[in-house]
């Protein structure tokens, strides 16, 4: 058997270039042939968080272009089923432009995790949303920071005491923060989750 010929300098250069491209793609978090996950998604399907608690998202250049509705009207579900085999998982995500600016967020959990947790632990957060006035406040805060006086004026509340009562409940539920004295804002990591809840409550 004849020994294979040594590759030419041009062939070696082409191989090195291809290897560099593959390494660059892996460092950028682009999905490879072996199904590597993209940045912004943890191994358990959840979005990793930075030290501040804000979601970490992939750069726009590395995000794959989703299929159009004409190609697959259920492209998100199709992708989820491909990444989370039976018994599956639940994922929500959003890329939105609101008063706080452009926000991107993804969070997900395997079915086993969701069925194995104590749902009662979320009662306070859920209960905080259970009042029309609080939802109206959150809608105003989605547009940007408000003072109590502004909320009282815009929502035609009877007094600042009423506003503080509901803001306190929303703060205890983790929905709002006070970035500066006398000012209230919707907690940035809760913007997409709130919009996901509102979306889920629509009657399809």
Question: Can you characterise this structure?
Answer:
The chain folds into two domains: 94 residues, no CATH class; 82 residues, Winged helix-like DNA-binding domain superfamily/Winged helix DNA-binding domain (Arc Repressor Mutant, subunit A). The strands form two sheets. It has a three-stranded antiparallel beta sheet. With 204 residues, the chain is of the alpha+beta class. About 18% of the residues have low confidence. The relative contact order is 0.10. The chain has eight helices and five strands, in the order H-H-E-E-H-H-H-E-H-H-E-E-H. Helices cover 41% and strands 15% of the residues.
> How do the SSEs run, as a string of H and E?
HHEEHHHEHHEEH
Strand order of the largest sheet: 3-5-4
Helical amount? 40-55%
**Integer count of domains:** 2
Radius of gyration: 24 Å
Question: What overall geometry do the principal axes of the alpha carbons give?
Answer: globular
Supply database-style keywords:
3-stranded antiparallel beta sheet, 204 residues, 41% helix, two-stranded antiparallel ribbon, Arc Repressor Mutant, subunit A, alpha+beta
Write the layout of secondary structure elements.
Blueprint: H1 9-28, H2 75-83, E1 89-98, E2 101-110, H3 111-116, H4 123-128, H5 132-142, E3 146-147, H6 148-155, H7 160-172, E4 176-180, E5 183-186, H8 191-200
Short description:
This protein is α+β, with helices and mostly antiparallel strands. The chain has eight helices and five strands; from the N terminus they run H-H-E-E-H-H-H-E-H-H-E-E-H.
């Amino acid at each position: 058997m004849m020994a294979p010929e040594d590759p030419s300098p041009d062939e070696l250069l082409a191989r090195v270039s291809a290897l560099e491209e593959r390494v660059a793609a892996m460092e950028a978090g682009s999905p490879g042939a072996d199904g590597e996950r993209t940045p912004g998604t943890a191994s358990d399907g959840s979005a990793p968080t930075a030290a501040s608690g804000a979601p970490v998202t992939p750069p726009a250049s590395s995000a794959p272009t989703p299929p159009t509705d004409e190609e697959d009207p259920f492209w998100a579900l199709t992708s989820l089923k491909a990444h989370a085999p039976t018994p599956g998982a639940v994922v929500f995500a959003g890329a939105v432009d609101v008063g706080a600016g452009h926000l991107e967020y993804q969070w997900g959990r395997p079915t086993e995790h969701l069925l194995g947790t104590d749902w009662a632990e979320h009662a306070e957060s859920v209960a905080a949303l259970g009042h029309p006035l609080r939802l109206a406040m959150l809608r105003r805060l989605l547009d940007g920071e408000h003072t109590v006086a502004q909320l009282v004026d815009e929502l035609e509340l009877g007094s600042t005491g009423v506003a503080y009562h509901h803001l306190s409940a929303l703060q205890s539920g983790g929905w709002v923060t006070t970035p500066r004295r006398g000012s209230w804002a919707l907690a940035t990591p809760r913007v997409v989750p709130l919009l996901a809840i509102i979306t889920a409550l629509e009657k399809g």
